[in-house]
Design a protein that fits this description.
five-stranded parallel beta sheet
Length: about 375
């Protein structure tokens, strides 16, 4: 049995949630606004807080702040109206564990309470057919995956944000695999890895004779991705002139090859990814505001590895098995002290950096049991 705090100003919904959760065996305290919620949090401990995002005397963010002031802080789930997922994503950036869209589906509610309030653990591996697995059970990662599963069947443009190495391409591949375009091509282009003079022809292609050395027609990534998904990785690195042409494709699905006068069509679904703050770049004049509006129709923020330390153990086991298979050796086994050493480490490079460290372990210690000292040597 979990002790739950429900914060909802609409009487009928508050009573329904209170009754449903009580019938599921939980102890429930229900209030109608942010101030009484703050008082309730000061008076007693809760295993989970469920709060509406819009409240008459404050907001769900006030409830979130009051919950995070507790020690230990209970997880907070925000409820938000359909179509305002962006607000829920912002709440998660501030520390909310997950969100629910209204009207609340009881099955989803029961599952979240079970996962967040000490019930059955969520699955550790998300592996859609045709895509690499995504490993982790932290609520923020599971919430991002839930957003991905929700948007995948649509044709909406998606913006993946997060630090370098958090797995944005993995998310993009999973989104493609879960979409109606799964049988079409998945094409990825790293906008930061292509010289500014070549990025336009890389994206849109060129005609023969368009410039010196263009001895044949070349198809661009938007054409190659027709009927599938195009990942614009590090989209913040696009030059301003190319941003205008990308915006035109997103708005109307039309473009021209470099050196050509024929207007062409593409129906590639665009997924953009960045580790930059595009809003700051807009303010500095380095990114087009209208392109940002077009890209962030459906934003998904990926948590850093530091934000989900509990995922380090299953993620390490998964990476060791995968890397050992690549090198044709048996994977090392990490002793509890070794895992503790990894959990204490800082991971500015996130999962990519962890994979690099573990690949050294696979090469140097195949099939061995590794303690804290052996793992510490991998960092040197």
């Amino acid at each position: 049995m979990a002790r739950l705090l429900v914060v909802e100003d609409r009487d009928s919904l508050r009573r329904m949630l209170e009754r449903a959760l009580a019938e599921a065996g939980h102890s429930v305290r229900a209030v109608a606004d942010a101030p009484p919620a703050a008082r309730a949090l000061a008076e007693e401990s809760f295993d989970l807080v469920l709060t509406d995002l819009k409240l008459p005397g404050g907001s769900g963010l006030d409830v979130l702040a009051a919950a995070r002031a507790r020690r230990p802080p209970p997880p907070v789930v925000v409820m938000t109206a359909y179509g305002t997922v962006g607000a829920a994503v912002e709440a998660m950036k501030l520390g909310a564990a997950d969100f629910l869209e209204k009207p609340v589906e009881l099955d989803s509610l029961y599952r979240l309470v079970g996962e967040l309030a000490g019930g059955a653990p969520p699955p550790e591996v998300f592996a859609p057919p045709g895509a690499p697995p995504i490993v982790g059970a932290h609520p923020r990662l599971r919430a991002a995956l839930r957003l991905l599963a929700r948007v995948a069947p649509t044709d909406s443009t998606v913006l993946l944000t997060g630090e370098s190495g958090t797995g944005k391409e993995l998310f993009a591949r999973a989104l493609h695999a879960l979409s109606p375009r799964a049988q079409g091509p998945f094409v990825a282009v790293n906008c930061a890895a292509i010289p500014e003079t070549l990025i336009e022809t890389e994206l849109f292609g060129h005609e023969r004779g368009a410039f010196t050395g263009a001895d044949r027609r070349r198809l661009g990534r938007f054409e190659l991705a027709r009927g599938g998904t195009l990942l614009l990785d590090e989209v913040g690195e696009l030059p301003l002139g190319v941003q205008a042409k990308v915006l035109r494709v997103l708005d109307g699905g039309r473009f021209e090859r470099v050196g050509g006068g024929e207007e062409l069509a593409t129906d590639a679904r665009v997924v953009a990814a960045t580790n930059r703050d595009l809003t700051e770049m807009v303010a500095a004049g380095r990114f087009r505001r209208d392109l940002l509006f077009r890209l962030e129709i459906f934003p998904i923020a990926l948590p850093s590895l530091a934000e989900r330390p509990g995922d380090l153990a299953p993620l390490s086991r998964h990476l060791l098995e995968r890397l050992a298979a690549r090198h044709g050796v048996r994977p090392p086994e990490l002793e509890p002290a070794a895992l503790e050493r990894l959990e204490r480490a800082r991971w500015p490079g996130n999962v990519r950096q962890l994979a690099n460290v573990l690949e050294r372990a696979v090469i140097l210690h195949p099939g061995e049991r590794l303690g804290a000292a052996a793992v510490a040597e991998l960092f040197s």
